[in-house]
TrEMBL record:
Official protein name in the record: Glutamyl-tRNA reductase
Record text about domains: Possesses an unusual extended V-shaped dimeric structure with each monomer consisting of three distinct domains arranged along a curved 'spinal' alpha-helix. The N-terminal catalytic domain specifically recognizes the glutamate moiety of the substrate. The second domain is the NADPH-binding domain, and the third C-terminal domain is responsible for dimerization.
CDD domains per record: NAD_bind_Glutamyl_tRNA_reduct
Active site per UniProt: 50 (nucleophile)
Organism classification: Bacteria, Bacillati, Bacillota, Clostridia, Eubacteriales
Comp. bias regions, Low complexity: 443-458
Record-annotated Tetrapyrrole biosynthesis glutamyl-tRNA reductase dimerisation domain positions: 321-420
Role this protein plays: Catalyzes the NADPH-dependent reduction of glutamyl-tRNA(Glu) to glutamate 1-semialdehyde (GSA).
Gene of this entry: hemA
A GO term for molecular function: NADP binding
Positions bearing the site annotation: Important for activity: 99
Length: 458
């Protein structure tokens, strides 16, 4: 049984291609059933997020499996096989393990170390299990990947620091308000995408009231609906600013719209109660002098970018620690997977030797005629010794090379040299290339699908 993956992500395909290959949960039953029909496929799972779509499979024939999945994806997005090939990547065998472990750990994400992907990997696996699409090898791969992702986040700080402008603003707000931002109110000036993203993060972190003010009142109404907030007419901006704890400004104005005198008047009516202003506009909306007003904390997009750059540097440092964890986990998993190649091959080789030995002993006895029991025992012992000695070195060498990254090649060569028929294993010429889980459903699925291997807890 061989592992393969075919997919695309934010690095290889634009959004107009990625959206064509998106698989909402309600469509996965049909999609997995179609992949399962590919002749070589014995188990499969589909990971589909806004930034990637990947089809993982355990197959009997690597080339047949890759070709079948590429054709499936081409049909899905209504492109020719040659057109979609420009956007796809595929990995086989050892590289599949490395890829999925890095994905689950957040090392292959658009935002380094992001945490959402681990839950998405888990959900993709659970759905595939529920639909009966996986098999033992794939179960072990995904459960190990989930454990690795948890280990990386537990043993490193890769997800501790904000690395997006909008989220950095939220982290700064938490620092400014000593008792947190839960229950605070936010006023959005302008209806731009960055303002919306920042407000989204603030609401997710407990902000209770959202006010939206824009020169186009209709756009303010639309954005306010997104957060269950209230639209404010632009000429009432400063009145409502008197009650806001956080102000996000991102208009298309070519001049300052928040000036020191206006903010001083607002702060007097607030009795100098703290106000956090985030100026994301370019050109800036807020006169820099506003930052010197007592009680006002002002940050522009460069301030936020400096925070992001510093945090990203820290995440990259933690990513290097994560890579070491992944390497160790890959080595352990590969040893287990390699045994799935080598053990049945060794058994088939010994069976072939036994069949030849018995055939030739029977032929010799028939030709020699009447033999004493002692003579038969001597001949049988000699035949047995010859076969054992001939097979000794191939078996020892295969056991030695099996845990290496090229172990599958030695297995294949041995199968071809001795013309062995090993059930569940076939690879075309020239092709190279029991974990613990906190999720009860995943554990049950693994128990019912031949889980194997050992793991660290994560």
């Amino acid at each position: 049984m061989y592992l393969i993956v075919v997919g695309l992500n934010h690095k290889t395909a634009p959004v107009e291609i990625r959206e064509k290959l998106s698989f909402p949960e309600h469509s996965l039953a049909e999609a997995l059933a179609e992949v399962k029909k590919i002749k070589a496929v014995r188990g499969c799972a589909i990971l589909s997020t806004c930034n990637r779509t990947e089809v993982y499979a355990a197959v009997l024939d690597v080339e047949q499996g890759l070709r079948g999945i590429r054709e499936f994806l081409a049909r899905r997005c209504r492109l020719s096989a040659s057109e979609i090939q420009n956007y796809l990547y595929n990995y086989t065998l050892f590289d599949v393990i490395n890829h999925l472990f890095r994905v689950a750990s957040g090392l292959d994400s658009m935002i380094l170390g992001e945490t959402q992907i681990l839950g998405q990997v888990r959900r993709a696996y659970e759905i595939a299990c529920e639909l009966g699409a996986t098999n033992g090898v794939l179960n072990t791969l995904f459960l190990r990947a989930i454990t690795v992702g948890k280990r990386v986040r537990t043993e490193t700080e890769i997800d501790r620091n904000a690395v997006s402008i909008s989220y950095a603003a939220v982290e700064l707000a938490k620092q400014i308000f000593e008792d947190g931002i839960e229950g605070r109110s936010v006023l959005i000036v302008g209806a731009g995408k960055m303002s919306e993203l920042t407000a989204k993060h603030l609401v997710a972190n407990g902000v209770s009231t959202v006010l939206v003010s824009n020169r186009s009142y209709d756009r303010a109404v639309c954005l306010a609906k997104v957060f269950g907030g209230k639209a404010v007419k632009f000429d009432e901006l400063f009145t409502y600013m008197e009650t806001a704890d956080i102000v996000i400004s991102a208009t298309a104005a070519t001049h300052y719209i928040l000036k020191p005198q206006d903010i001083e008047n607002v702060m007097k009516k607030r009795n100098n109660k703290k106000m956090f202003i985030i100026d994301i506009a370019v050109p800036r909306d807020v006169d820099p002098a506003v930052g010197s007003i007592e009680g006002v904390s002002l940050y522009d997009i460069d301030d936020l970018k400096n925070v992001v750059d510093s945090n990203l540097s820290q995440r990259e440092k933690e990513a290097r620690k994560a890579e070491k964890i992944i390497k160790n986990e890959i080595d352990e998993f590969w040893k287990w997977l390699s045994s799935q190649f080598a053990t049945p091959t060794i058994a088939a080789l010994k069976k072939r030797g036994e069949e030849i030995k018995q055939k030739e002993i029977t032929r010799a006895f028939n030709r020699l005629g009447n033999l004493t029991d002692r003579e038969k025992k001597v001949i049988s012992s000699m035949a047995n010794s010859i076969v054992n000695q001939l097979l000794h070195d191939p078996v020892i060498q295969l056991k030695h090379y099996a845990p290496t990254h090229q172990g599958h090649l030695y297995t294949e060569i041995l199968q071809k040299l001795f013309n062995l028929d090993v059930p569940g294993q076939k690879i075309l010429e020239g092709q190279t290339g029991q974990p613990q889980s906190g999720d009860l459903q995943a554990e049950r699925a693994a128990a019912g699908h031949g889980q194997a291997g050992q793991s660290h807890t994560g």
